Structures are given as structure tokens and as C-alpha cells.
Amino acid sequence: MRDRFPRLSILGASLVLALTVSATSVQADGMATGRQNLACGSPSSIDDGWTTASPDSVGMEGMRLCSIAARLDQRATSVHSVVVVRHGKLVFEQYFPGYDQPWGQPDGQHEFTATTKHDMRSASKSVASLLVGIAIDRKLIEGVDEPVLKFFPDHQAAKHAGWEAITLRHLLTMSSGIEWDEARSWTDPKNDEPHLTFEADPIGYVLAKPVAAPPDVLWTYNGGGTELLGNILERVSGKPLEAFAREVLFQPLGISDLEWKAYKNGKIAAAAGLRLRPRDATKIGQLVLNRGQWNGRQIVSADWIAQSTTPRFQAIGYFGSTMFYGYQWWMGRSLAGDKEIKWVAAFGWGGQRIFIVPELDLVMMTTAAQYGQPKEGLAAIDILSNIVIPSVRDAR
């Protein structure tokens, strides 16, 4: 849809941005106090492992990317960051101040920069999937067809009939068939998700749920299954989940500034508690794009990446039911002109998104505070489909 952004519009957007910068006090590092990197999103060099480059040097229209901030202003989107990587190089980043509800911190106005951690929310699930793959690669787990009950001999008395048929694969694809509903209001006692935060034994709570359907019959979004996967990783590795993740995933990616938050009951929130810098979260996307490699090192097997990003279920009831689901990863598409472009993504509540576009060798990451809003996540797909993808001048 390149004709949506004629040169006049791009120049106009750039003028708006320039006027905004001139009207805003500027810090010593040359960035405006209100918004970071308004000068067309030129990435900063902060020695975090990323090679930076200009968009034009990797076959993208830099001036088109300059219109992102103006587009977000039009949408009143509560977006906090946009990061773009192509051909393995960081080519664009912008940060925006605004309201947020950071885990364990006061709600309110916050500033965001390249070194500010942000809640990933349910994008944590996709990271948990990578950790399961690494555990399988390291022979800590035999495979995805291992029965879940094998890992919880101490909870045998709590489970209902039907659990013996549920495997790790069913947890990964959210097709276990257990009775679970987290689509209700947070204050609704029938919402299962809050129980993960206050139950003394949240793992026992999940394992005690009745089985509503045989595995592979119903797709139901289920953070409880991800919590079981996180606990299984702790059991097979003999380490807390964050420690295991740091050793096998984050350290190899050069990520040291992270948190994996715990629920009020002290249980680490495998399904939602990860906090990362947006640039570091983008490394997760690049790892998947590179089929499990980072800087030439195979961190997770290419086979696991392929298995994880294979569509396995229609995601009925979420995001218009138009997307597919794999092993804790979403799959969808964007329309660029008259061509459909497929992507893989990690989605987190509030607008946290990591988009991986293999066909274009592209990764885009956003953070936001669209918690509970009807337009949650729309800004991310809008700028991906209508600005970032159309900015690509060459297919590879």
C-alpha cells in the first residue's frame, strides 16, 4: 500500500517531527525530553550486541519510517517503543513517554529509552517455548509427547480423569482440553488466571482442573498450561526458571538486564512475568528469524524453531479468530499492496508485540500500555502493515 504515503505526506510528517523537536527542551545527549530519537528513529549505539545501520543501507525507505511517530499520534495509541531490525541490523528505534502499569511498580507516567525494561506480559509464553526447546535439545526432556503427569508425581491425587492423555505438546499448543477460562473480567471468580497469582499452590490449582474435552479437540487460550511448562523446566534443570533462562538463552544472546517477576504467592510467572529492554526483546525475534542462531551460535535447534512456528490451531476467540497458533507462537499475515506477507509473532497483553517476517528478513518489536483497550495491539499491526513492510524496497 505504498500509495498511502506519498512524498508530500512523508515530508509533512517530517516537518511535524522537526517542529516538535524544536519546541521541546533537549537533553545533553541530543534527544528531546518528551520523545526519544525523534530524528527519524536513528538507533543508538549502546554496546548491547546490535550492529546499527541506516534503513536505506538495508533496502528500506528511511523517510517512510520517519512517519511512524506521526501515525501513532493520529491513533492516540499509548505506544512506548518501536524497534525495527532488517538483515540482522538495528535500523530504527523510537521511544515515547506515557502511562504504564509496570509489574511491581506504581502505575502512572513513565519515560522510556533504549535502556528501559518493559513488561512483556504474554510474550513471555513464546520465550518459555524456546526454553522448552532448549531443554529438549539438551536431553533434559525427551520430547513434546512426554505425558505431563510424569513430571508431577507429587500431585497425583489432585488430578481428574483425562489428564493421563495430556502431553507437553498439548500444553504448548493450548489444546490440552482442560477446563479453563481467562477471557472473563479479572474480578470474576470464574476467571482462572487470577488464581495463578494468589493460590498458595498455583501448579496444584492447574492440575486439579477437570478435563472438558480430549486433547487436540479444542483450542483454548490457557496461561495455566504455560505455568506447568515453566515448573517442568525448573524440575528438570534443578534451577529457578529465571536462572535457567539466563544460562541457556539470555546470556548467549548478550542479555543481562532482565527480570522475570513472580506472582504474589512467590511463584515465578512463566506465562507473563518477563521484563526486557525492547532492543533485547527484538533479539528473541532475530533468534527465531535465524532458525535458532545468534552470531553464528546455535542456541536452540532449527528443528525446534520450525516445529514451534508451524500453524497447528485456528485461534478461535482471539484477535478476530483470524490467526493460527503453534508452540506458544502466533502466526498471521499482512497485506502489502496486493501481496500477502506472512509473519510469526509473540503477543503480550497491552500491545507488546514481536513480529518476525521471514520473507523480508525483518523483525519489528513494540511495547505499549493498551491494557484492556478495544484497540489493543492495533497500532503495532498498523505500522507493521502500512509503514514498515511497505518501506522494504527489495524482497531480500
Write the layout of secondary structure elements.
Elements: H1 7-22, H2 62-65, H3 68-75, E1 79-86, E2 89-95, E3 98-100, E4 108-110, E5 118-119, H4 123-137, H5 168-172, H6 195-198, H7 202-207, H8 223-237, H9 241-250, E6 258-260, E7 274-276, H10 278-289, E8 293-294, E9 297-298, H11 302-308, E10 313-314, E11 324-325, E12 330-336, E13 339-348, E14 352-357, E15 362-368, H12 378-388
Antiparallel strand pairs: 1-2, 1-15, 3-4, 5-7, 6-7, 8-9, 10-11, 11-12, 12-13, 13-14, 14-15
Helix pairs in contact: 4-8
In short:
InterPro entries: Beta-lactam-related, Beta-lactam/transpept-like, Diverse_Enzym_Activities. The protein has 396 residues and is an alpha+beta fold. The protein has helices at residues 7-22, 62-65, 68-75, 123-137, 168-172, 195-198, 202-207, 223-237, 241-250, 278-289, 302-308, 378-388; strands at 79-86, 89-95, 98-100, 108-110, 118-119, 258-260, 274-276, 293-294, 297-298, 313-314, 324-325, 330-336, 339-348, 352-357, 362-368.
